[in-house]
Each structure stands twice: as C-alpha cells, then as structure tokens.
Amino acid sequence: MIREYRTIQEINGPLMLVRQVQGVTYDELGEIELPNGDLRHCKVLEVNGDNAVVQLFEPSAGINLKESKIRFLGHPLQLGVSGDMLGRVFNGMGRPIDGGPDILAEEFRDINGLAMNPAARDYPNEFIQTGISTIDGLNTLVRGQKLPIFSGSGLPHANLAAQIARQARVLGDDAGNFAVVFAAIGITFEEADFFIQDFRRTGAIDRTVLFTNLANDPAVERIATPRMALTAAEYLAFEKGMHVLVILTDITNYAEALREVSAAKKEVPGRRGYPGYLYTDLATMYERAGRRLGCPGSITMIPILTMPEDDKTHAIPALPGYIPEGQIILSRELYRKGVNPPVDVLPSLSRLKDKGIGVGRTREDHSGTMNQLFAAYATGKENKELMSILGEAALSPTDLLYAKFADEFEKRYVSQGSDENRSIEETLDLGWELLSILPTSELKRIKPEYIEKYLPKKEG
Predict the structure, then answer these.
(1) Is 210 within 8 Å of 90 (Cβ atoms)?
(2) What span, in angstroms and rounded, lies between the C-alpha atoms of 164 and 25?
(3) Which end of the chain is more exposed for a tag (fewer CB within 10 A), N or C?
C-alpha cells in the first residue's frame, strides 16, 4: 500500500528531508504533490531510521513544507522498454521528446541493473567496423569490448561520436541485426540538436535509440541518463538478440554531477573533490557491457570523456583506466595541424585488437600490417624530432623515408574527415600503399608471402 506523508521537514538545494517514514528503501522513487496539484519527482538517497533524504528531479522552488505531501512508489527509477524504441529520441529520464507517441512498453526495467557475472561472460572476439582507419586498422573494436575515447575541451569528439554512430556495423550474416544506443550527457542544446539532425540526415536514426540530457537539467537526471541507455541496450541485446553499440558522451559531465550530489549529501570528498566511490560507480556501468554465454546479442561500449586540462592523470580518466580494455586518445597537436579525426595513434590502445582480426574476421594480413604501421610511424616521429634538432643532413636516406612516411601517414591514414566511411579492405590497402614508401627490407614485421601478395609493385 502506498502511503502519503506530510512530514517534509527541510529543503536544502536539491535535497529534501522527510521524517517518520516507514518501509522506504534506498533509490526508491517518490512523488511530491504541491497544493495546486502539480507533481515533482524524487528518489531516495539515504535512509536513517525513520528519516529519508530524497533528491529532487525538478527545482525545489514553490514547494510548501506544510501543505505539500510526498508518496513513495515502492520501486526504483524504471524504463519502459520495447523494440519500438529504435528510431526514437528521449530525454534523460526516458520520456519521448521527438513529438511521437509514448512507447508501449513490453516490460519495465530497473535502470540500475547489474554488472554482468564474470562466469556468464563470453570472450569478445568479433570485429566491429567503424569506418575509421585509426580504430579499425590499428586499435580494433570487437563486440563486447569497452573502448573509451579520451578527448580534451574543444577537440572534435562530438563529431567523432556521431561518425562512429553513423558508420559502425558488424560484418557477415549479422549485419542487419545491429543497433546504436546513444546517450548525450550534460550537453548544450546546440550539441543535442547537432546529434539529432545528423542522425536524421544520414538515416542512422532508424537503428538508433537516442537519450539527451541537457546541461541545464538536474544533476540527478545526468546520473540516470547513462543507466537509461544501458537498460535499453540490455533489452535489445539480450532479449532481442541484437548487437548493440552504446556511445556515452560526456562521462566528465557525469562525474561532475556525481560530485555535486556527493557534496550536497556532505560526504567526505576523495581525490579532487570527487566521491571516493567514483571508480566503483563507473564500474557498475561499464561492466554491464559484454557478451553472454549462450546469447546471440552483445553490448559494446564507447564512453567518451574530456580530460580536464588535457591531463591523463586527472581523477576522471585515471581512476577507471583499467575497467575498459584500452583507450583512444585525441591529440590537440594533430588537431592544430588540421588532422581530423585527430587520433594520437601511439598512446592509443585496444587490448583486444588481436582477438578480432585475421582470417574470417578482417583479412589475413591485418596483424602484420598493423604492427608494421605502428613501428614505422614511431620511427618516423623520432626521426622528425632528430631532424628538427640536428638538421636534415644528419639523417640517412632511410631515416628521411621514415620521416616522409610519418607525414603521409598523418595526412592520408589518420586524417579522413567526418564523412568518409572506409571499409576494412580500404583501410588495409591504404596501409600497404603507405608502407610502399619504405624499402621492402624494412618491412620486418610482415610475412614475406603477404608482402609479395599485397605490397603495390613499384614502377620501374
């Protein structure tokens, strides 16, 4: 039985204290009814005896302590899920904002979910094509992987996120069974409009579920948005058998909201003011991605975060650094050179890349060309630094070829623009074209039979 209480005692910003409650539990949803009949929503943050601290989803202005009443609904925040969610746009609380009808839910699910049991996990080993050479060719994304993108303020991570959402697909028989769940967290109205219009312009909206939480929305909604997205993804993946790519941008805004709520609760702050449970909180979200044994569907996750002051040791990128399997790092230096997307290849890493490439997945020469491109680019960068210190005359002809390779690699392989969608074959062929700049004797990481088969023949 739902009880109503008129024992609202105190309001402090987004928090409200309710006394003399019975049977109220952590994370339970509540409704506040104002004297004029308006409803405000809240959730329970803390229960201490018969006192409950709740956080408001809407502003606290206008709530009369004596005349307002609150009722607890007996369940946490839920999302109504259905296959009809594809092609729809929702706000951060899961309500449609695209002018369409409400979703006829097949079931209601607790958005908090559970991390996947390690014993029930299947190993990620199937290739996902993003159409972006630096990811497909060098830091391959596989189904069930968590691969974050580390960016900086002002870098084009929004364009990159939209490009991945548009272009990503699985190859083979499952090509038509692919969906994207996109959660925009704490973004401006202009950014939200950019994502919606871009998906509609390209037709990607038809296979996308889009959640948008704006910067002026309450902090508690910002915390709920990625969980809404993951709940929708779990339904599509494990009930409908789809391969789902979840893109979360921006995790930094999520962490700031977590810090705001923690400060309002007067919790002891941890590193840089963030709550001590930041790592655990992010892990509860990240670990919902993966593949389940005996289930055809999968959830692959790309969280995007802007590093404050481009600092990789900052609490937000550093604390959860070992939860995902690698990272893609964007470079401000490359961005200033006009390289788009400005992916910094050398510090970027996909720990599962070897599991998703090769015969039957991409192509037999993928592993060798990937290792050779990494090595050649690293050598070329070193030689360019030596050239700037010692002068061009100090370098051998081979060293100069490596320096030329590094320039061409950035210009043609890394930089491809926001609208170019390269197949994995095009990416591998481009890699061979660039490797033809170097003497064949330098290609020591590729099997001779692949060099004979794939390396373009030099004229003359």
Answers:
(1) yes
(2) 40
(3) C
Q: pLDDT tens-digit profile of 384-443?
A: 998 888 888 888 999 999 999 999 999 999 999 888 999 999 999 999 999 999 999 999
- Rounded alpha-carbon distances, angstroms, from residue 143 to 171, 303, 311, 435: 11, 15, 29, 29
* Residue among 311, 366, 374 at smallest CA distance from 345: 374
Predicted confidence (pLDDT) per residue in 443-459, tens digit: 999 999 999 999 987 66
Decide: 335 and 415 in contact? Cβ < 8 Å. Answer: no
Helix axes 278-286, 251-264, angle to 10 degrees: 130
Task: Using alpha carbons, list the distances in angstroms from residue 422 to 348, 413, 416, 417.
Answer: 20, 10, 9, 11
Report the candidate in 190, 194, 262, 250 with the shortest Cα–Cα distance to residue 225: 250
8 Å CB contact between 146 and 303: yes
C-alpha 229/C-alpha 94 separation (Å) is 9
Cα separation of 245 and 369, whole Å? 27
- Select from 442, 441, 432 the least CA-distant residue to 363: 432
pLDDT at 35: 87
